[in-house]
Structure formats: structure tokens, C-alpha cells
Amino acid sequence: MVDPDGGHWVRFVVTRVPVSLGKPHGIDYSLTLHGPDGGRLVGFDNAHPVAKQKRSEPQDHRHRLRTIKAYEYRDAATLLADFWETVDAMLRERGVIP
Questions:
Q1: In sequence order, what are the beta bridge partners of 3?
Q2: Which of 2, 9, 32, 67 qualifies as a cystine partner to 43, CB 3.0-4.6 A?
């Protein structure tokens, strides 16, 4: 848990997969922040195509509340840094951290 008193928590699911057009990094990943009710607040993943994009295969993207935007994956370290930066921003907005 990232917020034991308020119930916010994170979940990481990462699986090595064959390199493909939809998964060019050789990983299938989902990094998420959830609120006390279990709803997803933030997510970084490559599990499905992004709506309104012409690509039909999965692609890297991020969720923030109800918004989905393409995400430019560079490497695992940058992905983790970007995820935690977005988590911190969300927790600040919700008054969980100063």
C-alpha cells in the first residue's frame, strides 16, 4: 500500500513475451494505482490499443482517471520513474500527501 491509512494501493503485473509489433519491448506490463474503493486512478500499460488511434495492436499508453493518452516507452527505469511521478501527483491532488 502507498497509503495505509487511506487505502490507496499499487499493483504491478509484468510478463516477458515474444517481441512483436504490439509488444516491441518483449514485455507485457500493467502498473496501476487504485483508490480506497478499488477503482483505478492511474495506469501505465500496453495491453490494448488506444481508442481513436489507427493502430489495431496494443500500444504503450497511460490512464489518468478517465483519460487515456499514448505513452512513449523508452526503458523500464523511465517507465517506473514516470509511473511514480504520476502516482505522487495524483496522491497530492487527493490530499493524501503534501
A1: 8
A2: 32
